[in-house]
Design goal:
The protein has about 180 residues and is an alpha/beta fold. Helices cover about 35% and strands about 15% of the residues.
Amino acid sequence: MGDTLNVAVLVGSLRRGSFSRKVAHAAIALASNSLSMEIVEIVDIGDLPFYNEDLEDASEKPSSWLTFRDRIRRVDGVLFVTPEYNRSVPGALKNALDVGSRPRVESIWSGKPCAVISVSLGALGAFGANHHLRQSFVFLDMPAMQQPEAYIGNAPSLFDGHGALTNEKTREFIQKIVTAFEQ
């Protein structure tokens, strides 16, 4: 492949000990040397002011918006790892999509390959959030990895008390996802 591909990892949960964050760390650890994957925390998505077009037209846009947009512009792709809130994506993640998509002619998302891993405490693996996010990808012009689909359920049973992934089948599955995304 030659050059290293830079991938931004956006975690939909703001909680430091979230299972989505643990899955994101597992994916990063399983990436080949051809992928440089990093959780975007220069500006935590929870610190982005809600998108408001009035702020876009102000003499000074929020600095966190500018920092976030610049960070995402510089990557080759984006991996989203998210829980499900009310059969949808968390508000902070949706706001990050909105902040990055404006002004519309300068969207940071357009043409960026992406993938999504959804994570839940229950058996469904945050299916609703995964598909709701994919609807946004269509509008944002983000080519999304179609297979393998990545729903990780029963997350509390997959990690030890220190946050390390202990389930070998899940490790193999995450490896498959990361390898497919790289390709």
